[in-house]
Design brief:
By secondary structure, this protein is an all-alpha fold. About 70% of the residues lie in helices and about 0% in strands. The chain has helices spanning about 1-30, 35-40, 45-50, 60-70, 75-80. The longest helix is centred in the N-terminal third of the chain and has 30 residues, at about 1-30. It is rod-shaped, with a radius of gyration of 18 Å.
Length: about 80
């Protein structure tokens, strides 16, 4: 029982830290000018998506395959191009 509380507490702390990191990243991005945002490849409207999307580090192809696998579809290599 004690171990369960320890794991739960650690998970809670990690989640709080991750949320704080996302807020800090969003604040930094919102303070940037439109030109600076364009230089790093995002628009002002994309800030929330970039900060809060967990899968932004995946390559688009892997993301697409993962989505189709989740739906139970099998993709052929020729159609993925």
């Amino acid at each position: 029982m004690k171990e369960w509380f320890k794991k739960t507490f650690n998970a809670f702390i990690e989640a709080r830290q991750a949320e704080a990191n996302r807020r800090i990243a969003a604040m930094h991005l919102y303070r940037m000018s439109d030109r600076e945002l364009n230089d790093i490849g995002i628009g002002r409207g994309d800030i929330k998506r970039v900060v809060y999307d967990e899968s932004t580090t995946e390559i688009p192809q892997a993301k697409k395959e993962k989505k189709h696998r989740k739906l139970g579809w099998k993709l052929h290599k020729a159609s993925i191009a």
